[in-house]
Amino acid sequence: PLLGGLLAVVAVRAALAWATEVNAVRGGVGAKAQLRAAVLEAVVALGPSGRSGSGSGGDVALLGGGLDALDGYFARYLPQLIATAVTTPILVGVVLIADPLSALFLIVTLPLIPVFMILIGWATQAVQKRQWDRLQALASGFVDTVGGLATLKIFGRAERQSARIRALTEEYRVHTMKVLRVTFVSGFVLELAGSLSVALVAVSIGLRLVDGSLALAVGLFVLVLAPDVFLPVRQVGAEFHAAADGVQAADAAFSVIERASLLPAASPAPEARGALELRRVAVDDGAGRVLAPVDATFAPGTITAVVGASGSGKSTLLGVLADVVPSSGTVLLGGKPVAARSGREWLAWAGQRADLLPGTVGSNTALGARSADADRLDRALRLDVDRRVDAEGTGLSGGQSARVAVARAVHRLLERGGAVLALDEPTAALDDESERRLLAGLRSLADEGAIVIVATHRPATIAAADAVLALSPAEAVLR
Question: Has this prediction a pTM greater than 0.85?
Fold first, then answer.
């Protein structure tokens, strides 16, 4: 009967351990999915202007391997913490019933381990933070290098960047070993504290066995239980260090979510009708003025060329219109103020970079559209819509990539019935004939009532405009 009971206890314990691990893993997967969705939503809400200093590479590191490191936190650390909170008081209570003096030693020495854990946690927090920062720097550097690989090869700087990536990788490896060193030392401290506490109980039991004040059976029973009293607490410390990377990633995730929560609430967009007005719209990044105050009115049916020297704020102005650059001042459409995060349904924007994805010309043109309409694609684009495109526009010339970016903005304008088309240097990589055709297309859109704003250096584009907004570090003049 005793053997059967022992086997039953072992089976029940194994089943409970399995059920605990399965539920912990399932809960961890759900929690990670919710946190990842919240971070992704926050990154989208923050936009490019609110991106962390590590850029898109840091965001990828956070959303990928960073949050995946929470597996150890949810699947092992939290279950172990709960098990410790339940089993340790029970074991201490059993020892208290069997031998109050040994229980007193356990109660006095047991808090030493959590105290050591807290002290070690304070010491390792800065180390873990630096480790996470290095991981984000490595991810950001790798993404930037891959994105500019073609340019680096052209100018013979690929080896220099490869050496930089190797240096960052080596630095990350060295720092990882430092983190592991701290982890092993902290584990040794916890094991030493637990072993000394058990030794203290064992000495007490031995002395009382010698003088006959304690029965042998009771002494052996307490001596067997004493290590199990400290074992759950030591395991909590070990699992905490194993999950430290995930905890650091979670802190970074909550930081992103908190920054997004501080943004003003999204407002409904005004009706896409009437003139676009800018009143004292300016941008200051804290280190100096980026865009001088702009007072301008853009009438429907007109093309306005935004000109100025490099660094005068042409791209910044279009970024303000696209709601990706924080600014001061007021933007009005049809006489109604346009609030931040209002959706910008009335605006179609194309930047200097096409940012093409693998697929076809047609799929890249309709990227982000609610539906891909063949007539809109044909009107927006004069390239073969079925032509294959690789990552970063490989397979197209620079001018063709620029035309795809413009066509994407035109497709969005036509699909949503927008009022404003904003283009950043759309003709910079075009030959004269392609530029002429593009300007004819923009004129056609303007004749239908669209407000077309083009940042440019090209004389032909400036000559085709109805108005010119000249930017300088001191002022903005519309003529």
Answer: no
pLDDT at res. 393: 56
| Total structural domains within the chain | 2
Q: What is the pLDDT of residue 467?
A: 93
Give the model confidence (pLDDT) of 5-44 as tens digits: 878 888 988 888 888 778 877 887 888 888 888 888 888 7
pLDDT at 374: 60
pLDDT at site 246:
75
- Final residue before a domain boundary, out of 237, 261, 285: 261
Residue ranges of the chain with per-residue pLDDT less than 50: 383-384
What pLDDT does 343 receive?
59
Domain assignment of residue 154, yes or no: yes
Distance CA 140, CA 135 (A): 9
User: Are residue 361 and residue 409 in the same domain, yes or no?
Assistant: yes
C-alpha 153, offset from chain centre: 29
* The predicted structure's pLDDT at residue 465: 92
Domain that holds residue 179: 2-261
Domain boundary (261, 289, 322) is at 261
The answer to whether residues 113 and 238 touch, using CB atoms and an 8 Å cutoff, is no
Q: Determine how many CB atoms are found less than 10 A away from the CB of residue 57.
A: 22
Same domain flag for 343 and 379: yes
